[in-house]
Amino acid sequence: MTDEPIIVVPYHPRWPELFEEERARIEQAIGPWVKEIEHVGSTAVPGLAAKPIIDIMVGVRSLKDSPILVERLSGIGYRYLPELERVFPLRRYFQKLREGRRTHQIHLVEWSNSEWWERHILFRDYLREHPEAAEEYAHLKRELSGRFREDREAYTRAKTEFIRACVHRAECDERN
Known about the structure:
Elements: H1 15-30, E1 34-40, E2 54-60, H2 66-74, E3 79-80, E4 91-98, E5 101-110, H3 115-129, H4 131-147, H5 152-175
Parallel strand pairs: 2-5
Antiparallel strand pairs: 1-2, 3-4, 4-5
C-alpha cells in the first residue's frame, strides 16, 4: 500500500474543510453512482490527533460499477490499488498523493448492508460523542506510532482491540 512512515500529528481544524472540498470533487466525478460520502477515520473527529490523511468512505450502489468509478476517480487524481482486493474483496481503495505522500484516501464500498460501513460510522460517532475515549485513542496512537513507525500492519493490529471495544460500546448505546 505505502511505505511512508506512520506520523501522528495534532488535530488540524482545516481537516473537515479539506474533506468537504474533496467530497465536492468526488460527487462531481461519480455522483450518479454514489449513495453516501462520509468523512471517517481520525481526521473526522474534532480534536483527535491523527495521521494527516483525509479518510473518505464512499458508499455506492454496486461494486460492479468499479471500472467506470476507477476511471473517473483516476481523472480527479486518485490512484487505484487493485492488489488490495485480494485482502479486501468488498472494498476498492484509492490514494491521492502530493509530493509523494498520501493526502486523501477513498474506501469505496457497497452502501447497503455493509458491515464495514457501519463499523466505521459507529467508531467515528462514538469518538465524537465521547471525548475521553478520543483522548485515550490519541494517546494509544501516539505510543504505537513511535513503536511501529515503519510497520503499518503492526500499528493497525495494535489498535484493533481498542477500536473493537469502542464499536461494541457504540452498539450497546444504540440498543439502549
